[in-house]
Amino acid sequence: MKRSRGNRKRTGRMLLVLLLTGIVLASACGSRKESPAMDTGSSTGGAAPAEGYYNESVSDGEFGRGETSKEETGQAQGTDIAQLPSDRKMIENVSIQLETTTFLETEGQMMALVGAYQGYVEWSNVDGIGILQQGNRYQSRRGSYTIRIPVTGFSTFVEELKSLGNTINTSVNRQDVTTQVVDLEARLKSLQMQEERLLAILAEADELQYVLELERELADVRYRIETNTAELRNLENRVRFGTVQLQLIEVIRPTEIQQTPVTVWERISTGFLNAAKDVGTFFVDLFVFLVVNIPYLVILAFLALVAVPVSKLYRRWRGRHSLAHPPVEGPDREKKE
Questions:
Q1: What are the helix (H) ranges across the chain?
Q2: Where is this region: Disordered (predicted)?
Q3: Beta bridge pairs of residue 95
Q4: DSSP letters of 16-85?
Q5: 96-149: pLDDT as tens digits
Q6: Is the pTM of this model over 0.85?
Q7: Which among 49-58, 246-255, 286-295 has the top mean pLDDT?
Q8: SS3 of 296, please?
Q9: Residue 211: what are its φ and ψ, rounded to 5°?
């Protein structure tokens, strides 16, 4: 009987241990399943938000509005789609290559156009001193400008700017930063609330070590507030003002943009016209070369006029000298030697 009672006690203990082990394993599995959802819910993790992106390159084409699809805009970590504003935050960037035969005049018209649209030139650089001042050396001026224009008249400004010269290339780039702006605003709000709590705790702190730790934490929070504020202001400025990267090129003759020939006759006519233009350009360049180098040609002609009589006199003298002193041949030559 005693043995049976002992066996029952051991069996009960083993069942109790197995039950506790099963409870611990079940709780561990449940925590593992919940951890990914907790990780994806954090909004201040510092991960870069997804941004919509649109890019378009055209050659002497029209500047139009592009639409960003839902897949392009995406969703930033910690930013709910329902929190996004209805008006998207778009950054507009356009690059233009413009040819002109009157560099200074076109540059002045561009500056006046920028002022008319309440914009400003953020950066500029001009290389060269002009074709006319270089004589026969075709070293034209090139100007590079970074122009900022309010988005309210950005499209109209681009079209008017392209009309100032011969547009040979246009590149359009749009970037959707709505999720990034919303994420920065939420992060700033959280940091400001954290700053207020730290200030309230610091007001009641009395121990020196505790006060120093709070001040270090407060300085770190304020630094992050300033950093995020500067980033948000930069984004808002880029959203309010579109950017135009202009390259102004001085040329003697603007580039003719032609359509690609399709038929055989179009290819023949295009090739013939190009060959005729090349021949005409060759003769024009030859005429310019002769006119520019007239002083050198005059000197060469004078030297030629002098060299011809001198060479004739030398030949006559050489002939007379050979007749007066004929060459000695045969035994007489051996005797003289």
A1: 2-40, 70-73, 103-116, 154-162, 178-204, 208-240, 264-292, 294-324, 331-336
A2: 31-79
A3: 171, 245
A4: HHHHHHHHHHHHHHHHHHHHHHHHHT-S-S-PPPP-EEEEEEESS---------HHHH---TT--GGGS-
A5: 999 999 999 999 999 999 999 999 999 999 988 776 554 455 678 899 999 999
A6: no
A7: 246-255
A8: helix
A9: -65, -45
